[in-house]
Amino acid sequence: MFEARLLHGSIFAKVIEGLRELVNEATWECSGNGITLQAMDSSHVALVSLVMRSEGFESYRCDRN
Prior knowledge:
It holds the Pfam family PCNA_N. Keywords: DNA-binding. This is Proliferating cell nuclear antigen PCNA N-terminal domain-containing protein. One of its GO terms (molecular function) is DNA polymerase processivity factor activity. The chain is α+β, with helices and mostly antiparallel strands. The chain has one domain: DNA Polymerase III, Chain A, domain 2 (Roll), CATH 3.10.150.10. It contains one helix and five strands, in the order βαββββ. A hairpin with a 6-residue loop joins strand 3 (34-40) and strand 4 (47-53). The mean pLDDT is 92.
């Protein structure tokens, strides 16, 4: 099971907005440590590497990777 809750959801919305302008496709991975994402833009010039640690969430649960 995966569950993550942010106190201020607008932070996550801004992250998604920034990603949306740069990459067309991305894979999110969750673990007990947090959520990660790596994606390349379509021209293979920019690499996005995002780490959202579990401590940054109001509540966080990820039972499996």
